[in-house]
Write a structure and sequence with these properties.
By secondary structure, this protein is α/β, with parallel strands linked by helices. The chain contains 9 helices and 7 strands; from the N terminus they run βαβαβββαβαβααααα. Helix 1 (about 10-20) links the parallel strand 1 (about 1-5) and strand 2.
């Protein structure tokens, strides 16, 4: 899995990178400190990029403008907006521009990791404290991911079913039109939820 972190504070990037590696030991963290450097990384890795975490304030511009550009040129790449403040207005702007989440920088590591899993499953993450400010509905592009009794989202249940059919990660990625890195992230969550250490056990049981 590849995650691009765009933020101009090196210390924050370092701390966030450490937290993100808890998602999966194979996760690759790419870093950029400005709009220009972020665009450069995206242009060379767009086909393998699984998620962009984008700071709102960057030295060469506003993160919202970069978010809009990413959504226009690379609509399949999930983007979450980072911010140093819990601002309802900024959150609405980010979601309306196509972000799949709004993460205040003070968010705890476990919640950040849960939010990322949710977004990779096609859901949208909004801090509970800010949810009332959205009013009656979420933006039209966002669909809340439903969670099963086992704590798995609908997409993760789909992945588990395909594993049970004997499909490889590459085949699952092709079938669901997602990246192989995203499939690996889902498999990690599924194995933990089922209490097994090998996908072979899922194949034997048919999921």
């Amino acid at each position: 899995m590849q995650i691009l972190l765009i933020d101009d504070h090196e210390l924050f990037r370092s701390g966030m990178a450490t937290a993100l590696r808890m998602l999966d030991e194979s996760v690759a963290i790419l870093e950029a400190d400005s709009i220009a450097s972020g665009l450069s990384v995206i242009e060379t890795t767009s086909s393998t990029l699984d998620l962009v975490l984008l700071d709102h304030e960057l030295p060469d511009g506003n993160g919202i403008s970069l978010l809009q550009r990413i959504r226009m040129n690379h609509p399949l790449i999930p983007v979450a907006m980072l911010s140093g403040v819990e601002c309802p207005k900024l959150m609405k702007q980010a979601l309306e521009a196509g972000a799949l989440g709004y993460l205040p920088k003070a968010t705890s590591t476990p919640i950040v990791l849960s939010a990322i899993h949710l977004m990779l499953s096609g859901g949208i993450y909004v801090p509970p404290k800010l949810l009332p400010s959205l009013g009656a509905s979420l933006p039209s592009h966002a669909v809340q991911a439903k969670v099963s009794d086992e704590g798995l989202t609908e997409r993760q249940l789909e992945v588990m079913n395909l594993i049970g059919q004997g499909l490889s990660n590459k085949e699952i990625a092709w079938r669901l039109n997602i990246s192989e890195g995203t499939v690996k992230a889902h498999v990690t969550v599924i194995l933990k939820a089922k209490g097994v250490h090998s996908r072979k056990l899922l194949i034997v049981s048919g999921g």
